[in-house]
Amino acid sequence: MRCNEMIINLFFVRNDHSGARTYARELLQQLCYNEIKLHEILIESEEFSEFTVVEKDSVLEIHIPPLVKRSGIIEKYSKRCIDLISSLLIEKNNLIFHLNYHHHADIGLEAQKRFGAKLIYTVHFIPSYFTLLKMGVKLNKATAKKEACVEKKILSKSDSIICVTQFAKNILMIYYGVPESKIQVVYNGLDNREDYQNVNKYKIRKKLGFEEDEKIILFVGRLSESKGLEVLIKAFLKLSEKNNRVRLVVIGNGDLAHYIGQCQGYWGRITFTGKLPAELVKPFYQISDIGVIPSESEQCSYVALEMMQNNLPIVCSNAPGFNELFIDGENAIIVPLAKVKGVEWKLEVDVDELQSKIQLLLNDRVLSKKIAGNGRVKWELEYMARQMTDKTFKLYKSMFPELTNLSFDN
Question: In this predicted structure, which of 90-99, 239-248, 294-303 has the lowest mean pLDDT?
Answer without folding.
Answer: 90-99
